[in-house]
Design a protein that fits this description.
The complex is a heterodimer of chains A (about 110) and B (about 140). Chain A contains 6 helices and 3 strands. By secondary structure, chain A is of the alpha+beta class. Chain A has a 3-stranded antiparallel β-sheet. Chain A is elongated. The relative contact order of chain A is 0.15. A 7-stranded antiparallel β-sheet of chain B has the order 1-7-6-5-4-3-2. In chain B, a hairpin with a 2-residue loop joins strand 3 and strand 4 (about 60-70). The longest helix of chain B is centred in the C-terminal third of the chain and has 15 residues, at about 120-135. Classes of the chains: A alpha+beta (about 110), B alpha+beta (about 140). The interface of A and B includes residues 18 and 90 of A.
Chain lengths: ~110, ~140
């Protein structure tokens, strides 16, 4: 399964989703109920966020009886962890800001 | 063993600006101007000078290597224990200046060490947030 960095960015740009993902990274597999109990976000909201994370390939679900267990998929982060991609994005955005600065210096 | 040079990671970003090299040089070397587009810093255009770039997500430790006014500027760039060298090249064109940034970095085996030992979630997510904010601005 291949995920574009954009989908990952979108999934992780939200602080609540990021917190959920971090919980799964730190605490291992958990159910929606378990994840809801720890935070201040409602269960339907948690489920919705998990669905976005799942779509981005960041979490995987496993059904066991009536419960669904969620786990973090660290491998999905690899496109973001690639140094070359990350630095290229960084410098391109710096170049944009440099361009803005040069325009201002004209005035 | 493979040739080390070919194992290095390199990032190149180039752009043409409708301004003379003199103006770009100022933006690249004057601390208050650098801060406006890159990061807070205590840069001095003098080879051997140690300085830092600082941002909310952390700091980059640098040392000036080469200064050739309005032509070349390079400094080491060390962040999260990873070493690289950033080299700026300015070339006057008929319409302005061609600016080239090359960052030559660590080897893949260092990257593995980095991901294994120096991986900090909080730092990583802070950086990501900053990138994401720019991405979707």
């Amino acid at each position: 399964m291949h995920n574009s960095p954009d989908a990952l960015f979108r999934a992780l740009a939200d602080p609540t989703r990021r917190a959920l993902f971090e919980k799964l990274c730190a605490g291992g597999e958990q159910t929606v109920g378990g994840l809801t109990a720890q935070g201040q976000v409602s269960q339907p909201a948690v489920s919705k966020h998990l669905a976005v994370l799942k779509q981005a390939g960041l979490v995987q679900d496993r059904h066991e009886g009536r419960q669904t267990h969620y786990s973090a998929q660290l491998k999905a982060l690899s496109p973001l962890l690639d140094w070359t991609n990350q630095m290229t994005r960084f410098w391109e955005s710096r170049f944009d800001d440099l361009e803005d600065l040069l325009k201002r210096m004209d005035q | 063993m493979n040739d080390t040079a070919t194992q290095l990671r390199t990032v190149v970003v180039e752009r043409e600006f409708p301004y003379p090299p003199e103006k770009l040089w100022r933006a690249l070397t004057q601390p208050h101007l650098i801060e406006a587009w890159l990061m807070k810093n205590d840069f001095v255009p003098q080879p051997g000078h140690h300085f830092n770039f600082t941002a909310e997500w952390g700091a980059v430790n640098c040392e000036v290597r080469e200064v050739e006014p309005q032509r070349t500027l390079s400094y080491t760039w060390s962040a999260y224990g990873l070493e690289s060298v950033v080299t700026w090249t300015l070339e006057a064109t008929g319409k302005g200046t061609h600016l080239r940034m090359e960052q030559a970095g660590f080897r893949p085996d260092q990257e593995q060490a980095y991901q294994g030992a120096k991986f900090g979630w909080q730092r990583y997510f802070n950086t990501l947030e900053e990138l994401a904010a720019k991405e979707f601005a």
